Amino acid sequence: MNNLSNLEPKEVFRWFYEINQHPRSSGNEKEVSDFLVQFAKDRNLEVYQDEILNVIIKKPGTPGYENSEPLIIQGHMDMVCVKTDDSNHNFDTDPIEMIVEGDVLRANNTTLGGDDGIAVAYGLAILDADDIPHPPLELLVTTNEETGMDGAMALTADHLTGTRLLNLDTEVEGEFLVSCSGGSNIDLSFDIAREANSSKAYKLSISGLKGGHSGVEIDKQRANAIKLAARLLYLVKADVRLASFDGGIKHNAVPGNAEVVFATDKFDSLKEGLDALIADLKEEYRVEDPGLTINITEATADQVYTKDLSDSVIDMVMALPDGVQYMSKDIEGLVQTSLNNAVILEEDGKLVLTASVRSASSSSLREILNVVTIIANRMGAVAREYSAYPAWQYEAVSPLRDIAEKIYVDMYGKEPHITSIHAGLECGLLKGILPDTDMISYGPSIFDAHTPKEHMYISSVGRVWEYTKKLLAALK
């Protein structure tokens, strides 16, 4: 039973309910992709489905708009599938159970899938309607956005003719994104060389840091546990040997924890200096990271890194840039370029540090990647770049942005928030294959995305629907 049937706008929530009946975790989109294809066939609309299950549905312009410039409406069909520990929900088989509480729509102890199912629902509602004026439309629904934007990466321009594009994957109502950063991961690896240890071993533990997303929260200037460990180790480098170095969890998160096992015969004489630096670090980050905890306890280590390797690792991590590198010259308060030293661990006989570099400028991105590579090579590490994605660079002239802004002001009597995001969006990849396409990104407010607390305000969905219809009518 469709418990959203009485929600307004009915045409949008009808299709949001329908797509939430299909499994659509990243990598498991076949059923929902086929559903979109059948939707198009049932309405005699032109449709394409590629090998990676991206779908493009085309609809001619309405009377008076037949010769207008084509418009692409874009979102992704996959969702992050997370549930509470006590939930029995099976994302591979069970529909999303949705709950209406006043103006709030949420799921029952799972993610809701508003990111980015609501974009698909808007698109289907527009294609299904016969009373909404619009230019020729191309609804582009991509796959695997949440796990690396694989769908957009595999896309070609063969079936896309749109010169304007609305990406509906922004999660703050009234905010228009007009650019995003590109980025690349880079691994710095040492071959591990060990020898027997006869000295006492100690474990340096750093915890209690807030961490956060390495793109949108990098401007918080929070402490990086891996870098803090390097600062402490560098102080005593001459008298210690590393046995292990482990920190961070994900490439896109500022590491909040690190553990280093080291050996030394001179700990008693080193302790005073370490304690002083620990006190300094806690003072340095007392505002950004008041929960910072640093402990040094006794440990065991039968083997340690060779002296050369130990020194090289400490020197490299100490020397690497970290955090905000440059601020945007176009948008006040926006980070242009950043670097996050995200993860360090041992794997397959190597010690590997993974860094994530982001920038809205391709030249600035290349600069930082080159700096990291030079530092790594000088210390004897091998650098490998991978998972690169392009920036969507800010364009001073954007007719679509101007029209969208005017419609918003006319409807709400205030300016929208024109901004950018220091993270990757599919718009960056789409701009790569559609370089002459004018783009903006917006959407209704979605809160706590990627968590079981994800929810949307029903009224926000309605306002964005009315706005989108007005915008379509203006794109003649």
Automatic annotation (TrEMBL):
Record carries keyword Signal: no
GO molecular function terms listed in the Swiss-Prot or TrEMBL record: metal ion binding; metallodipeptidase activity
Entry keyword set: Cobalt, Hydrolase, Metal-binding, Metalloprotease, Protease, Zinc
EC number in record: 3.4.13.18
Cofactors that this protein relies on: Co(2+); Zn(2+)
N-terminal signal peptide: none
Keyword Zinc: yes
Gene Ontology cellular component terms for the protein in this record: cytosol
Domain Peptidase M20 dimerisation: 206-286
GO biological process, one term: proteolysis
Reactions catalysed according to its record: Hydrolysis of dipeptides, preferentially hydrophobic dipeptides including prolyl amino acids
Classification via InterPro entries: Bact_exopeptidase_dim_dom, Peptidase_M20, Peptidase_M20_dimer, Peptidase_M20C
PANTHER family referenced in this protein's UniProt entry, alphabetically: CYTOSOL NON-SPECIFIC DIPEPTIDASE
Family: Belongs to the peptidase M20C family.
Protein name: Cytosol non-specific dipeptidase
Organism of this sequence: Peptostreptococcus stomatis DSM 17678
Lineage of source species: Bacteria, Bacillati, Bacillota, Clostridia, Peptostreptococcales
Name of the gene encoding the protein in the UniProt record: pepD
